[in-house]
Design a protein that fits this description.
It is built from twelve helices and 16 strands. With 412 residues, the chain is of the alpha+beta class. Bound molecules: glyoxylic acid and manganese (II) ion (MN) (3 copies). Pfam families: M20_dimer, Peptidase_M20.
């Protein structure tokens, strides 16, 4: 077991977090680093440069997932993995994703600086398109890697401008030669901000993440009829936006039926050919629900399409609903969770067990590799917001736990 006298460098960590946040910086202090854009390309290049300074070998797979490897002493040992994502929401914060990647870099730097040769190799991963805000599926890179989505299908997904994933990868030179599929690994650890208020509210420094909640996502299209706003009487209207509004109210109602555990969101909506004096003839929107229990999400997945269709049909505007994915509750590996808990205790941090409300690449990695996550608090529980904020000491504590967990596993 490693001692706790070996420490990561909190200032170096923070400086690199701020250096990454310069790439795609927004006027309000956040980050816009949408997946597979020129800004993402710059982020990837900076990350690669930092890795190569440490003599890490960087390989890239067909989905643009980046793997930076540090060899261990024992060539027969499977690698210990860590990572997260450098892409952001359209108006995201500095830390969602970037913390886990830059913390992993700080772990690599510390191993390098202290001349520590681990028994097992260690790999640091930057997953492509964790956020899903451009191509519609979150956890895209890790999802293809894990075999959840066929690569050919993912290559064909397009953004709102019709640019496919395959073309976007090619355009920024992010498509690598290695196949995007699981390889044998000993463990995966992902550090992330909590993105919710629990740790801050309870004054805990570290969250020991035991699993992630279930979710289901759809694309919805309501088709009515464009018509003149001034001449079309109520009896002749086929107002697609009115239907969408009623379905949004249904999402809220179904969420609230699950009390404090329910989540239901329509976060994106487009009125096609919108004009203030046209009755909307076509509306497109996203729908997602989340809940800690798979059974609750399965019940919603069974009931929502029917209830939404009834609303649409009653308004004479048919609904086309496409389920994008249903993710069951994903428990993390008790052994890896135990390593995180022990590392936090050895370091003297206050902790609490927590279930992740957000999706993370760790959810898909956990299907083939023993996995755990570490959470740090974030200010006012705010995330997917430019005002997302954490303290340097919080980043340092989470990274210290990541370092100790990786070291314990790689030298066991
Ligand atoms: C990813 O950011 C999610 O929606 O949980
Ligand atoms: Mn994230
Ligand atoms: Mn996010
Ligand atoms: Mn996320």
């Amino acid at each position: 077991m490693s001692g706790t006298n070996q420490r990561i460098d909190g200032k170096r960590l923070w400086d690199s977090l701020m250096a990454m946040a310069e790439i795609g910086a927004t006027p309000k202090g956040g980050v816009r680093r949408l997946t597979l854009t020129d800004v993402d390309k710059d982020g990837r290049a900076r990350f690669r440069g930092w890795c190569e300074t440490l003599d890490l070998k960087v390989r890239v797979d067909a989905m643009g997932n980046m793997f930076a490897r540090r060899e261990g002493r024992d060539p027969t040992r499977l690698p210990v993995l860590m990572g997260s994502h450098l892409d952001s929401q359209p108006t995201g914060g500095k830390f969602d994703g970037a913390l886990g990647v830059i913390a992993g870099l700080e772990v690599m730097r510390t191993l390098h600086e202290l001349n520590i040769q681990t028994e097992a190799p260690v790999e640091l991963i930057n997953w492509t398109d964790e956020e899903g805000s451009r191509f519609g599926r979150s956890l895209m890179g890790s999802g293809v890697w894990a075999g959840v989505y066929p690569q050919d299908a993912a290559y064909g997904w397009a953004d709102i401008d019709g640019v496919t994933v395959s073309d976007a990868l090619d355009r920024i030179g992010a498509k690598g030669e290695h196949p995007a599929k699981p390889f044998p690994a000993d463990a995966y650890f992902e550090l992330h901000i909590e993105q919710g208020p629990i740790l801050e509210r309870e004054g805990k420094q570290v969250g020991v993440v035991t699993g992630a909640q279930a979710q289901v996502w759809w694309d919805a299209v309501v088709t009515g009829q464009d018509a003149h706003a001034g001449t079309t009487p109520p009896s002749a209207r086929k107002d697609a936006l009115l239907t969408a509004a009623r379905i949004i109210a249904l999402v809220d109602e179904m969420m609230r039926a699950h009390g404090d555990d329910g989540r239901g969101t329509v976060g994106w909506l487009q009125v096609v050919n919108a004009s203030r004096n046209v009755v909307p003839g076509e509306v497109r929107f996203s729908v997602e629900f989340r809940h800690p229990e798979t059974a609750a999400i399965e019940a919603i997945a069974a009931a929502f399409p029917q209830r939404a269709a009834e609303i649409a049909n009653a308004n004479r505007t048919p609904l086309d609903l496409k389920e994008l994915f249903l993710l069951p509750h994903q428990p993390f590996d008790p052994g890896c969770v135990g390593i995180v808990r022990e590392a936090s205790a050895r370091l003297g941090y206050t902790t609490r067990d927590i279930i992740s409300g957000a999706g993370h690449d760790a959810v898909y990695v956990a299907r083939s590799v023993p996995t755990a996550m570490i959470f740090t608090p974030c200010k006012d529980g705010l995330s997917h917001n430019e005002a997302e904020s954490i303290e340097p000491e919080e980043a340092e504590a989470g990274t210290q736990v990541l370092f100790q967990a990786v070291l314990a596993r790689a030298n066991r």
